[in-house]
Predict the structure of Pyridoxal phosphate homeostasis protein.
Amino acid sequence: MNVDVAKNLHEVLGNLPKEVRLVAISKYHPNEYLETAYNEGQRIFGESHEQELAQKQETLPKDIEWHFIGHLQTNKVKYIAPYISMIEAVDSYKLLKEINKQAAKNGRIIKVLLELHIAEEETKYGLTLDDCRDMLEKGEWKDLGNVQICGLMMMASNTTEISLIEKEFDTATSFFDEIKVKFFADAPEFKERSWGMSHDYKIAIKHGSTMVRVGTTIFGPRVY
Ligand SMILES: *Cc1c(COP(=O)(O)O)cnc(C)c1O
């Protein structure tokens, strides 16, 4: 192993305030890297491809909490529903409904985050703030008893312009506060703000993040 996963992991953990949790983003990395992080105490891992996740879930320890962080097609939900701990990137009501259906089939309640599209890049998935508001105002989601909406997720623009990144995190935090009051005032589980990746997690923790998703800084560059 030419990447010192243990050292990198502890460095990142050392930068996080106690109340911020780390999702170690392990996509495209081999099991041995995850095992090293696991042996150092890391339990939350994030993956973005259903087949790769299935292979890792089968072979790695069962007390790992797997987060699905990528764009999830509705026809793939059934494969991860038996074991997924949190689906972070819910970007449509259709997907939310399918997760609810598959969770029910498995006798489970699956935690999800709603993914916001705030960054200026067109390639990013996610709900615009207006779409997210509309979806919540319609209220149909309240009948979905097998999903638990635990907060929001977003990616800031991939830029070196720190003020833009800060602005986007702040937009997401104000939006969180707005919908918390309007729709989730009685839902203590609605508390997560998943923002911050390798290049911007230190900014994110100063701008409202409760959960950072860090890959490259821990595991090194991904080999596709
Ligand atoms: C890959 C990925 C990450 C991790 O990115 P790094 O730059 O490697 O830290 C975080 N969030 C999402 C949604 C990702 O797809």
Observations:
- The CA atoms of residues 3 and 74 lie 35 Å apart.
- The first strand starts at residue 21 and ends at 25.
- The mean pLDDT is 96.
- The chain has one domain: 5-219.
